[in-house]
Design a protein that fits this description.
Blueprint (H helix, E strand, L loop, with lengths): L1 H16 L21 H14 L12 H16 L30 H16 L5 H18 L5 H22 L64 H13 L4 H9 L10 H14 L3 H14 L1
Helix pairs in contact: 1-10, 2-4, 2-5, 2-9, 2-10, 3-4, 3-6, 3-10, 4-5, 4-6, 9-10
């Protein structure tokens, strides 16, 4: 309940206020991303969501999926922003975010091709252990979209656009790789202190992400003041607020309505989407119904990924 509230609060606040305008930014004068539909983003979102629903044995539906979705959204935005009027790079807004390679001056780009290339490359780099079937799906979607877009423009623009998307993906991935998620740590040893994690055998010998605190925050200072106080020793006793909340959930679980069951299944994690995946699933649905242009979809994907 509390984690769901945190996710939604962070999602809404960042969605409303994150990416700012820069009047000094001058986009490529020859064309801009608003000339293209969001189709490429929706197709890549749905492809990734299909991968994330695959069982853990195939190496995709992991706890790190929300990280991958954030970096995909950031990379897409950075690759498209040179063609977005009134918007600027996230450099200076995200922690340690590097300068992204610039586009060639006064050269035309096909921004949907750029988006296709950057998302294909990011999915390859972020899910290296996924199944061969999923790897083939990444290659197939990238090729199909590239061929579809080849009817819109000439070979020189296509190649320039695809190369730029891959260049941005490489830079963003190099930054992502230094965020602390690859740290090697010993097995977690419970401290036994009141209010700390304890094992609930036989299924949970280790906590999930016990070293998550080592990971770099995407937005500087965003976690300031958010750590809750440890629960008091009496908090689990009958009659306490915590006990009453837990008992209320348990009591309701005994007489669930079909609507409540459907809601719980939609928001469950593994099997189903891993943590945070539901928000990207909602984003894909919204984009599919609203049919925005590519620039709007790029902003939405970046905000959604960063927020979750």
């Amino acid at each position: 309940m509390l984690s769901d509230f945190f996710y939604k609060t962070a999602f809404v606040s960042l969605f409303l206020s994150f990416i700012s305008c820069d009047k000094n930014h001058v986009p490529n004068p020859h064309n801009n991303a608003s000339e293209y539909s969001a189709e490429v983003v929706v197709k890549w979102l749905n492809m990734q969501l299909n991968m994330l629903r695959v069982p853990l044995a195939q190496g995709t539906g992991t706890q790190a999926s929300e990280r991958a979705q954030a970096y995909c959204g950031i990379a897409l935005y950075e690759a498209i922003v040179p063609g977005m009027r009134g918007h600027k790079s996230l450099q200076g807004q995200l922690t340690d975010f590097p300068a992204i390679p610039p586009v060639e001056t006064n050269r035309r780009y096909h921004w949907a091709v750029v988006g296709n290339a950057v998302l294909a490359e990011m999915n390859r780099k972020l899910f290296p252990t996924t199944s061969n079937q999923n790897k083939a799906s990444i290659d197939s979607l990238e090729k199909a979209l590239y061929m579809e877009f080849s009817a819109d423009t000439d070979a020189e623009i296509l190649m320039r656009s695809a190369n730029y998307g891959k260049k941005v993906a490489t830079k963003v991935y190099e930054w992502a790789a230094t965020d602390g998620s690859a740290n090697v740590n010993p097995p977690y040893t419970p401290s036994g202190a009141p209010g700390t994690w304890v094992s609930t055998p036989p299924n949970f010998p280790q906590p999930v992400n016990p070293y998550a605190i080592q990971r770099r925050l995407l937005v500087p200072g965003v976690a300031a003041g958010t750590s809750p106080e440890p629960p008091p020793p009496y908090s689990t006793k009958p009659g306490s607020d915590f006990y009453n909340m837990a008992k209320d959930v348990y009591d309701k679980s005994l007489t669930l309505t079909p609507e409540q069951i459907a809601m719980a299944i939609y928001h469950r994690d593994v099997p189903g989407y891993p943590g945070g995946g539901q928000f990207v699933a909602v984003l894909a649905q919204v984009l599919g119904k609203a049919h925005p242009q590519l620039d709007v979809a790029a902003i939405a994907y970046a905000k959604c990924g960063i927020a979750q």
